[in-house]
Amino acid sequence: MPQQMIFAPMGVLAFLTLAVLAILPFRRFAAGRAGRVTAEDFRFGESPRVPGDVSIPNRNMMNLLEVPLLFYVACLMFFVAGKVDGVVLVVAWTYVALRVIHSLIHLTYNKVMHRLIPFAASNLVLVAFWILFFVR
What we know:
The protein is mainly alpha-helical. The chain has helices at 7-33, 52-65, 68-81, 86-107, 112-135. The radius of gyration is 17 Å and the shape is elongated.
């Protein structure tokens, strides 16, 4: 199996992260034009005065930069060790799909219990991904 196939799920997750990054200025500038926030509200990060619909993309962005770092590292470990196979790719794509679902819920209707399920499941899949590397 071509080892570089592991880069596809990595790329999709990276582009999801970039897409969420692109949403941030749109939400912030729209809220600023509507008088809902000022530049001062972002002086030290986001103040409590920032409305939820404006702060949620930032929170989602942070989610995509925290735990997924371990996914990127594990993918690179599988690649360098030459251990990429069909099972590894299925697990990698499962992780990415769950993160996409989590972000879609978070950025749209944001029902906590709905987004908790893919978020928690993605973390379990990530643990399995790491275990898979060391077992093999």
